[in-house]
Amino acid sequence: MKQLITLLFLAFIIVACGGGEDAPSEAPLASANKVEAKEINVKKIWKVRCIACHGIDGTMGTNGAANLKLSDKDMDYRVNIIKNGSENGVMTAFGEILDEDEVKAMAQFTMDLRED
């Protein structure tokens, strides 16, 4: 019985706190025609999603990951691979994890890693 009460108490705390996620801001826009640009932290996404296989600078190649400093793939290819993953399954699909703007920002980030 004591364990059940403890479990229910912990569940209540988690629900009451929102699971640790910040609630979205309800602040109104200054103008109905003005759209605020979403800030995308590509370095944070890189550290969380990409660094394990591509490394800090895109050259690690764990599990067959492409060396992004040497890659000659264009932007459209990179967006497709980030969004849908690779056909051989080496690259994980992130289209259901990242939104369209984040996918494009990450593709551009990988383009910027290239050596010219």
UniProtKB/TrEMBL annotation:
Domain Cytochrome c residue range list: 37-114
Organism: Neolewinella antarctica
UniProt name for this protein: Mono/diheme cytochrome c family protein
SUPFAM superfamilies registered for this protein in UniProt: Cytochrome c
The keyword Signal belongs to this UniProt entry's keyword annotation: yes
InterPro entries: Cyt_c-like_dom, Cyt_c-like_dom_sf, Cytochrome_c_Oxidase_Subunit
Statement: the UniProt record of this protein carries the keyword Iron: yes
Pfam family, one: Cytochrome_CBB3
Keywords: Heme, Iron, Metal-binding, Signal
Cleavable signal peptide: 1-18
